[in-house]
């Protein structure tokens, strides 16, 4: 699939996150205090929708079990045991583009064996 336009930068105001469809799957754009991040839309722990969580511009918190990640580096904080997967992304002509060769998916406990 290669590089695809996800959305306009203005579609996701600073401090917010929003899901977008890219072909047959969804991604979530997070606009943090230090830039944008494009990730799979579910929590790596239990597949809860990250868009239902909380985001203060620097820390994303899943509302199901309170796993947290620092944004924009997607590294786990506190009880979170796994970093968020990230699509390579960049800003081009006031739009957010992501390299989406394949859908990034987490290996959940019941699917890993």
Order of SSEs: EEEEEEEEEE
Let me know the largest β-sheet.
4 strands, antiparallel
Percent helix range = under 10%
Helical/strand content category: mainly beta
Low-confidence stretches: none
**What is the molecular shape?**
globular
Major beta sheet, strand line-up: 5-6-7-8
What is the terminal-to-terminal distance? 29 Å
The helix tally amounts to 0
Number of strands: 10
The whole-number mean of residue pLDDT values reads 92
Q: What is Rg?
A: 13 Å
How much strand content do the residues show?
A: 35-45%
Quick take:
With 113 residues, the chain is mostly beta strands. Helices cover 0% and strands 39% of the residues.
Describe what this molecule looks like in 3D:
The mean pLDDT is 92. The chain contains no helices and ten strands. The strands form three sheets. Strands 5-6-7-8 form a four-stranded antiparallel beta sheet, with no helix packed on it. The protein has a three-stranded antiparallel beta sheet with strand order 1-10-9, with no helix packed on it. Strands 2-3-4 form a three-stranded antiparallel beta sheet, with no helix packed on it. Helices cover 0% and strands 39% of the residues.
Name the features:
mainly beta; 113 residues; three-stranded antiparallel beta sheet; four-stranded antiparallel beta sheet
List the helices and strands and how they pair.
Elements: E1 3-8, E2 17-22, E3 25-32, E4 35-39, E5 54-55, E6 59-61, E7 68-70, E8 76-77, E9 89-92, E10 95-99
Antiparallel strand pairs: 1-10, 2-3, 3-4, 5-6, 6-7, 7-8, 9-10
């Amino acid at each position: 699939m290669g590089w695809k336009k996800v959305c306009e930068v203005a579609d996701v105001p600073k401090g917010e996150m929003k899901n977008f469809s890219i072909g047959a799957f969804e991604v979530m754009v997070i606009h943090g205090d230090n830039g944008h991040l494009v990730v799979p839309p579910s929590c790596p722990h239990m597949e809860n929708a990250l868009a239902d969580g909380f985001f203060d511009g620097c820390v994303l918190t899943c509302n199901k079990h309170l796993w947290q990640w620092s944004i924009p580096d997607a590294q786990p904080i506190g009880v979170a045991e796994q970093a968020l997967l990230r699509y390579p992304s960049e800003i081009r002509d006031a739009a957010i583009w992501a390299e989406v060769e394949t859908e990034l998916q987490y290996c959940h406990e019941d699917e890993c064996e």
